[in-house]
Amino acid sequence: MTDRCPICGKSARPFRHKVRGDKPIKVYRCQGCDLDYLGIWDDEKTTLGFYDNNNYVYKSNYTGHKANSDEYRKRFELVSPHLNRETRLLDIGCGDGTFLKMIKPYVKAAEGTEKTSIHAQMLKKQGYKVWHSLTKDVRPESPYDIICMFAVLEHIPKAAEFLRDLKARFTHKNTQIFIITPHLLDPLVSCYDVPEYRDFFYREYHLYYFTEKSMGRLLEKTGFQFEIKPVLQASLTNHFHWMHKGHGQANTTDMSNVVLPKSPLMSTTPSGRPFHDVLSKVDNYYRELLCEEKIGDLLFCRAWIKRPDLKDPN
After folding, report:
1. How confident is the model at residue 45, as a pLDDT?
2. Under 8 Å CB-to-CB from 91, ≥6 apart: which residues?
3. Is residue 83 very low, low, confident or very high in pLDDT (cuts 50, 70, 90)?
4. CATH class of the domain whose range is 14-232+295-305
5. Where do the domains of the chain lie?
6. Is the pLDDT of residue 66 over 70?
């Protein structure tokens, strides 16, 4: 365990001594990097051990229908403009394979890595090339054109070391890397400071809580150029739930499932328009407003290898 920032190496003071999980783990904040991090970020035995014996089994909430909070649709929108029929794509930490299955029809090869054995074994049986590892034991046949890390980088110990190895063994000069990670400037933490959400937000599995500044510094340190933007996944009504009830909606894709009591108003407005449409318009405006202020619950990042002659591979 260490109090030193994973990016700049300077010591910081803890501001939390407990996170969601079984262990009393300290959370530190590097003011210079705008990064919150757990003191176990460099403890590979402990952090990677979280995923042994199928202790961390991910279940996708993807339903196939469009919704503002549909994380898989957002992932597809982020990556799809950069794909073609010759693309070789690697999804690191592919979970149950939901994204691999979405993207497979659009690329030459869609492969994955996964630390949780039940997921890796299931996908292998379904015919996917998946390694039961993150990257350490993976020996790629050739570099990948696209590498995805969705809700993964925050789980990886020694992130800078990991990214350098990724660049050295998995990429070519035009490889693009797509990263989605929790944003430290989540509105329920940074704006509304909901105590129950703060206790939910910091967890033993998440070693880092990035901002645009800290993510940029990490990528620059490891030899990448990048573009980063905040995204708000949770809906306005989900935020209402947290602020009013101390927990989120049971179904975050259902805009009508709010803290207000069910009534005729919840079905239609006086003009006959569905009330859901009204909420949806307000929700869209809310998301745009917060993202303009650099606030969101996720960071979307596209990175490519830093070269003097290449500002953007596209």
Report:
1. 92
2. 99, 100, 103, 110, 111, 112, 113, 148, 150
3. very high
4. alpha beta
5. 14-232+295-305, 236-291
6. no
